[in-house]
Design brief:
The complex is a heterodimer. By secondary structure, chain A is of the alpha/beta class. Chain A has a single domain, classed as HprK N-terminal domain-like (Udp-n-acetylmuramoylalanyl-d-glutamate--2,6- Diaminopimelate Ligase, Chain: A, domain 1), CATH 3.40.1390.20. Chain A contains five helices and five strands, in the order αββαβαβαβα. In chain A, α4 links the parallel β4 (66-69) and β5. The longest helix of chain A is centred in the C-terminal third of the chain and has 11 residues, at 97-107. In chain B, strands 1-2-3-5-4 form a five-stranded antiparallel β-sheet, covered by helices on one side. In chain B, a hairpin with a 3-residue loop joins β4 (123-129) and β5 (133-141). The chains are: A alpha/beta, B alpha+beta. The interface between A and B is medium-sized, with 21 and 27 residues.
Chain lengths: 108, 142
Protein backbone atom coordinates (compact mmCIF):
# COMPACT_ATOMS: atom_id res chain seq x y z
CA UNK A 1 0.00 0.00 0.00
CA UNK A 2 1.23 3.51 -0.74
CA UNK A 3 1.68 6.41 1.65
CA UNK A 4 -1.10 8.26 -0.19
CA UNK A 5 -3.56 5.41 0.44
CA UNK A 6 -2.66 5.25 4.14
CA UNK A 7 -3.15 9.01 4.42
CA UNK A 8 -6.54 8.84 2.74
CA UNK A 9 -7.87 5.76 4.57
CA UNK A 10 -6.88 7.12 7.98
CA UNK A 11 -7.97 10.69 7.26
CA UNK A 12 -4.59 12.10 8.22
CA UNK A 13 -3.57 15.75 8.17
CA UNK A 14 -0.66 16.56 5.89
CA UNK A 15 2.38 18.27 7.40
CA UNK A 16 4.70 17.40 4.53
CA UNK A 17 4.14 15.16 1.53
CA UNK A 18 7.41 14.32 -0.20
CA UNK A 19 6.62 11.04 -1.95
CA UNK A 20 3.04 9.82 -1.74
CA UNK A 21 3.71 6.85 -4.00
CA UNK A 22 6.23 5.41 -1.55
CA UNK A 23 5.31 1.85 -0.52
CA UNK A 24 4.57 1.24 3.15
CA UNK A 25 5.92 -1.91 4.75
CA UNK A 26 4.88 -2.42 8.36
CA UNK A 27 4.42 -0.14 11.33
CA UNK A 28 6.46 0.83 14.37
CA UNK A 29 5.13 2.84 17.30
CA UNK A 30 7.25 4.47 19.97
CA UNK A 31 8.46 7.72 21.46
CA UNK A 32 11.84 6.67 22.77
CA UNK A 33 13.87 7.55 19.71
CA UNK A 34 16.94 5.51 20.58
CA UNK A 35 14.67 2.48 20.94
CA UNK A 36 12.97 3.29 17.64
CA UNK A 37 16.42 3.65 16.09
CA UNK A 38 17.33 0.12 17.08
CA UNK A 39 14.05 -1.58 16.22
CA UNK A 40 12.08 0.10 13.42
CA UNK A 41 12.59 -1.26 9.92
CA UNK A 42 13.08 0.32 6.52
CA UNK A 43 9.76 1.54 4.96
CA UNK A 44 7.87 1.26 8.28
CA UNK A 45 5.29 3.86 9.24
CA UNK A 46 6.39 5.45 12.52
CA UNK A 47 3.59 6.44 14.89
CA UNK A 48 4.88 8.75 17.61
CA UNK A 49 4.11 11.80 19.74
CA UNK A 50 7.74 12.95 19.55
CA UNK A 51 7.77 16.06 17.36
CA UNK A 52 11.34 17.29 17.75
CA UNK A 53 13.78 17.49 14.87
CA UNK A 54 15.55 14.32 15.98
CA UNK A 55 12.48 12.31 14.94
CA UNK A 56 13.21 13.41 11.38
CA UNK A 57 16.86 12.39 11.63
CA UNK A 58 15.75 8.93 12.75
CA UNK A 59 13.15 8.75 9.94
CA UNK A 60 15.77 9.74 7.41
CA UNK A 61 18.47 7.34 8.64
CA UNK A 62 16.07 4.39 8.84
CA UNK A 63 14.38 5.25 5.54
CA UNK A 64 10.91 5.16 7.08
CA UNK A 65 8.05 5.55 4.62
CA UNK A 66 6.32 8.18 6.76
CA UNK A 67 5.90 9.60 10.25
CA UNK A 68 2.45 10.01 11.80
CA UNK A 69 2.29 12.40 14.76
CA UNK A 70 -0.53 11.03 16.89
CA UNK A 71 -2.69 12.38 19.73
CA UNK A 72 -3.14 15.85 18.16
CA UNK A 73 0.56 16.68 18.48
CA UNK A 74 1.21 19.70 16.28
CA UNK A 75 4.59 20.05 14.57
CA UNK A 76 6.16 23.52 14.74
CA UNK A 77 7.43 25.42 11.70
CA UNK A 78 11.02 24.26 12.13
CA UNK A 79 9.84 20.65 12.13
CA UNK A 80 7.71 21.15 9.02
CA UNK A 81 10.51 23.01 7.21
CA UNK A 82 13.05 20.30 8.08
CA UNK A 83 10.66 17.56 6.90
CA UNK A 84 10.34 19.38 3.58
CA UNK A 85 14.10 19.84 3.28
CA UNK A 86 14.84 16.19 4.13
CA UNK A 87 11.92 15.00 1.95
CA UNK A 88 10.18 13.04 4.67
CA UNK A 89 6.45 12.28 4.60
CA UNK A 90 4.87 13.59 7.80
CA UNK A 91 1.21 13.42 8.80
CA UNK A 92 -0.84 14.38 11.84
CA UNK A 93 -3.84 12.79 13.52
CA UNK A 94 -6.09 13.39 16.51
CA UNK A 95 -6.31 9.63 17.09
CA UNK A 96 -4.27 8.02 19.85
CA UNK A 97 -1.20 5.95 19.02
CA UNK A 98 -3.22 2.83 19.88
CA UNK A 99 -6.15 3.81 17.64
CA UNK A 100 -3.83 4.58 14.74
CA UNK A 101 -2.02 1.26 15.10
CA UNK A 102 -5.32 -0.62 15.29
CA UNK A 103 -6.51 1.06 12.08
CA UNK A 104 -3.17 0.48 10.35
CA UNK A 105 -3.41 -3.17 11.31
CA UNK A 106 -6.83 -3.34 9.60
CA UNK A 107 -5.76 -1.76 6.32
CA UNK A 108 -2.22 -3.11 5.82
CA UNK B 1 37.81 -0.11 -5.00
CA UNK B 2 41.42 -0.87 -4.22
CA UNK B 3 41.84 -2.36 -0.75
CA UNK B 4 45.11 -0.52 -0.21
CA UNK B 5 43.52 2.87 -0.82
CA UNK B 6 40.41 3.23 1.32
CA UNK B 7 37.90 6.01 0.77
CA UNK B 8 38.20 8.32 3.77
CA UNK B 9 35.92 11.01 5.12
CA UNK B 10 36.27 13.37 8.07
CA UNK B 11 33.45 15.11 9.94
CA UNK B 12 33.29 17.53 12.83
CA UNK B 13 30.31 16.91 15.13
CA UNK B 14 28.96 20.17 16.54
CA UNK B 15 28.35 19.79 20.27
CA UNK B 16 26.25 22.90 20.72
CA UNK B 17 23.09 21.96 18.90
CA UNK B 18 21.33 18.77 19.88
CA UNK B 19 18.71 19.16 17.17
CA UNK B 20 21.35 19.06 14.44
CA UNK B 21 22.92 15.86 15.80
CA UNK B 22 22.87 13.23 13.10
CA UNK B 23 24.00 15.43 10.23
CA UNK B 24 27.29 13.58 9.81
CA UNK B 25 25.46 10.23 9.85
CA UNK B 26 23.05 11.43 7.17
CA UNK B 27 26.03 12.56 5.04
CA UNK B 28 27.74 9.20 5.46
CA UNK B 29 24.53 7.41 4.53
CA UNK B 30 24.33 9.44 1.31
CA UNK B 31 27.95 8.64 0.45
CA UNK B 32 27.47 4.90 1.07
CA UNK B 33 24.34 4.96 -1.08
CA UNK B 34 26.24 6.60 -3.92
CA UNK B 35 28.89 3.89 -3.65
CA UNK B 36 26.03 1.43 -4.07
CA UNK B 37 26.48 -0.63 -0.91
CA UNK B 38 23.89 -3.10 0.37
CA UNK B 39 21.02 -1.31 2.15
CA UNK B 40 21.30 -3.46 5.29
CA UNK B 41 25.00 -2.54 5.61
CA UNK B 42 24.10 1.13 5.19
CA UNK B 43 21.36 0.82 7.80
CA UNK B 44 23.73 -0.75 10.34
CA UNK B 45 26.40 1.92 9.77
CA UNK B 46 23.80 4.69 10.00
CA UNK B 47 22.38 3.45 13.31
CA UNK B 48 25.81 2.94 14.89
CA UNK B 49 27.16 6.29 13.76
CA UNK B 50 24.02 8.18 14.75
CA UNK B 51 24.07 6.74 18.26
CA UNK B 52 27.76 7.63 18.61
CA UNK B 53 27.06 11.13 17.34
CA UNK B 54 24.19 11.58 19.81
CA UNK B 55 26.47 10.39 22.64
CA UNK B 56 29.11 12.92 21.63
CA UNK B 57 26.62 15.77 21.67
CA UNK B 58 24.97 14.74 24.95
CA UNK B 59 28.11 13.99 26.91
CA UNK B 60 31.21 15.41 25.28
CA UNK B 61 30.34 18.73 23.64
CA UNK B 62 30.88 17.27 20.19
CA UNK B 63 33.89 15.64 18.59
CA UNK B 64 35.23 14.25 15.36
CA UNK B 65 34.30 11.32 13.16
CA UNK B 66 36.54 9.53 10.67
CA UNK B 67 34.97 7.12 8.23
CA UNK B 68 36.94 4.74 6.08
CA UNK B 69 35.54 2.44 3.42
CA UNK B 70 37.47 -0.49 1.99
CA UNK B 71 36.29 -3.40 -0.13
CA UNK B 72 35.48 -5.54 2.90
CA UNK B 73 34.45 -3.13 5.67
CA UNK B 74 33.39 0.30 6.84
CA UNK B 75 35.28 1.60 9.85
CA UNK B 76 34.08 4.50 11.98
CA UNK B 77 36.36 6.21 14.49
CA UNK B 78 34.58 8.68 16.78
CA UNK B 79 36.84 10.77 18.99
CA UNK B 80 35.91 13.30 21.66
CA UNK B 81 37.55 15.31 24.43
CA UNK B 82 34.64 14.82 26.83
CA UNK B 83 34.58 13.56 30.42
CA UNK B 84 35.37 9.96 29.49
CA UNK B 85 33.56 6.81 30.63
CA UNK B 86 34.42 5.68 34.16
CA UNK B 87 33.02 2.16 33.85
CA UNK B 88 32.74 0.93 30.27
CA UNK B 89 31.13 -2.37 31.26
CA UNK B 90 28.37 -0.50 33.08
CA UNK B 91 27.92 1.94 30.17
CA UNK B 92 27.41 -1.03 27.84
CA UNK B 93 24.47 -2.27 29.90
CA UNK B 94 21.04 -1.65 28.33
CA UNK B 95 19.13 0.92 30.35
CA UNK B 96 22.13 2.44 32.11
CA UNK B 97 22.37 6.14 31.36
CA UNK B 98 23.95 9.29 32.76
CA UNK B 99 22.10 11.61 30.35
CA UNK B 100 20.33 14.63 31.87
CA UNK B 101 16.52 14.94 32.03
CA UNK B 102 16.23 17.48 29.22
CA UNK B 103 17.78 14.93 26.85
CA UNK B 104 15.36 12.25 28.04
CA UNK B 105 12.42 14.50 27.23
CA UNK B 106 13.68 14.54 23.62
CA UNK B 107 13.48 10.75 23.40
CA UNK B 108 17.09 9.89 24.16
CA UNK B 109 19.13 8.98 27.21
CA UNK B 110 17.44 5.62 27.67
CA UNK B 111 20.72 3.75 27.96
CA UNK B 112 20.34 2.26 24.49
CA UNK B 113 23.13 4.06 22.62
CA UNK B 114 26.14 1.83 23.20
CA UNK B 115 24.03 -1.38 23.23
CA UNK B 116 22.57 -0.36 19.85
CA UNK B 117 26.07 0.28 18.52
CA UNK B 118 27.21 -3.15 19.69
CA UNK B 119 24.16 -4.83 18.17
CA UNK B 120 24.64 -3.29 14.74
CA UNK B 121 28.41 -3.49 14.32
CA UNK B 122 30.74 -6.43 13.77
CA UNK B 123 33.49 -4.96 15.92
CA UNK B 124 33.42 -2.37 18.67
CA UNK B 125 36.37 -1.07 20.64
CA UNK B 126 36.11 1.66 23.27
CA UNK B 127 39.11 3.50 24.68
CA UNK B 128 38.31 6.04 27.35
CA UNK B 129 40.10 7.99 30.01
CA UNK B 130 38.20 9.94 32.64
CA UNK B 131 38.80 13.66 32.20
CA UNK B 132 40.46 13.22 28.81
CA UNK B 133 37.98 11.78 26.37
CA UNK B 134 36.73 8.76 24.51
CA UNK B 135 37.61 7.06 21.25
CA UNK B 136 35.16 4.58 19.81
CA UNK B 137 36.27 2.41 16.90
CA UNK B 138 33.61 0.33 15.21
CA UNK B 139 33.33 -1.54 11.98
CA UNK B 140 30.69 -3.15 9.83
CA UNK B 141 31.69 -5.88 7.40
CA UNK B 142 30.47 -5.51 3.83
Amino acid sequence: MTVNSVCEKLGLGVCNLADGEREVDGVYAGDLLSWVMGHAECSNVLVTIMSNINTLAVASLLDLSCVILSESVKPDKEFADTAKEKEINVFTSSLTTYELCAKLSEIL
Amino acid sequence: MDNSAPLEFHFVVDGNDFTSAGEASVEVKKILRRIGLDSEVIRRVSIAMYEAEINMVIHAGGGEADVSVTTDRITLVMTDKGPGIADIELAMREGYSTAPDNIRSLGFGAGMGLPNIKRYTDELHIESEVGKGTKITMSVNI
